[in-house]
Amino acid sequence: MIIALRAILVLGGLLLGFLGVGFLTDPVASGVDFGISAAGAHGLTSIRSDFTAFFMVGGACLIWGAIARRRDPLIIGGALMLVTLAARLVSLSINGSFLGYIPPMVVELVLGVAALIGARILPQRG
Prior knowledge:
With 126 residues, this protein is mostly helical. It has helices at 2-25, 27-33, 40-68, 71-95, 102-121. 83% of the residues lie in helices and 0% in strands.
């Protein structure tokens, strides 16, 4: 169970890191994949910086916490995922659904819960 949990966290962290690199190197294409378009340099800068930071920091926290068996980074990574999920649920209730809305929510739920479980049990295991 511990190995599977750590694998989920590391793979999830790598996925987030991959998304972050995408926003850093090609904010236009990555933004389109997320239903976002930029208006000029200001918009591109915002997409590039904000999304890169969110995904790279979230991914790094999951990887660091899983490998080092550290509670703090796992709580940060889990909080990022669960706050994002909560915001999606609010938006879903206000704006309605769209094609493909379920997969990101599942990923956020799995990674958020896995991170919080990891924060609880990984530091206690030798």
